[in-house]
Amino acid sequence: MYVGITDKDWFETLREEKCDEVNFWKPGTSNFRALEPNELFLFKLHAPYNYVVGGGFFVRFSSLPTYLAWDSFGIKNGTRSLSELHDRIRKYRGRNGIVRDNPSIGCIILTEPFFFDEEDWIPVPEDWKNSIVQGKIYSDEEPIGKRLYETVTERLQRIPSAFNAESSADRYSETITRHRLGQGAFRVLVTDAYQRRCAITGEKTLPVLEAAHIKPYSEHGPHLTSNGILMKSDFHTLFDKGYITIDPDFCLEVSHRLHEDYGNGKDYYKYHGNKLLVLPSQESQMPAREFLMWHNENVYLG
Asked: Alpha-carbon distance 217 to 210, whole Å?
């Protein structure tokens, strides 16, 4: 597990909002390699508040432009506006000697966060040093880390909603598929899985790319990468309205209804029958057949 240092304001904002996911961002873009997906990330407040006050479960690290971090997570960034996020970034960059005005920040995406009441805050481990700037790794196979882990799980038992009727914290040590990913994490995971390119056209202009659910969340479609495809916003609109679909062989189909309903569509018919230009490199992230078939049968106006 990892104990990361953060602001009390960031923590209080998220605790008040009862967020289902959070972006533990940092002003620089250097990679975060301390954890594997599903491992425990704990929040330790800046001195003089030398306590572990909550945490979450690691999903992914991604370097994101600030506008995309805000669009994806909003207040789950721990700020109440994009301008406030920019103000905090500038403050920390100045404090940390980061002089380059990089529009991107490092985003440590966490799911199922938990926030302890003040009476349940945990004093930092005895080996914690005031010189630590960002955070420290602990292992539950070592005495200090084991005590910290046991104390955290004991505190979690006092939060009924933390387990959703499952009485044991052991489930958090199993697999990332056991966690409920939020909309923000879904967007980032899909964006990165498709190498930040439109699956249909290969377009790289990030502001026009959107993570489309194959089976909509409103129809109980999950926030899984295998239920997502990265598309330009116009293709996303047509996909959601049923004018295009993707078949199980990953080929694009454009409905005859597009021309019938709007008298045009030549810019889209030229892609009819084409295989997706960009697909994830990992098999587990590929569009799942079950979701593609659902869209073909329930949404597509073929």
From this structure: 15
Lowest mean pLDDT among 31-45, 146-160, 197-211: 146-160
> pTM for the full model?
0.89
- In this prediction, residue 103 carries a pLDDT of 82
Kindly state the average pLDDT of the residues 247-256. Answer: 97
CB 55 within 8 A of CB 16: no
**Where in the chain are the domains?**
2-178, 183-298
- In degrees, rounded to 5, the angle at the alpha carbon of residue 218 between the alpha carbons of residues 172 and 292 is 85
Phi, psi of 92 (to 5 degrees): -75, -35
The candidate with the shortest Cα–Cα distance to 10, out of 45, 60, 59, 61, is: 45
Question: For residues 120 and 129, what is the distance between their CA atoms, to the nearest angstrom?
Answer: 22
CA–CA distance, 152 with 33 (Å, rounded to integer)? 22
The CA-based angle 268-206-274, given to 5 degrees, is 30
Lookup result for tokens 């605790």: 15
List the beta bridge partners of residue 51. Answer: 123
CATH number of 2-178: 2.30.130.30
- pLDDT 10s digits, 8-39: 999 999 999 989 999 999 998 899 999 999 99
The contacts of residue 280 (CB under 8 Å, 6+ apart) are 193, 194, 225, 286
Summarize pLDDT for 78-116 with one digit per residue, the tens. 999 999 999 999 888 877 666 566 689 999 999 999 999
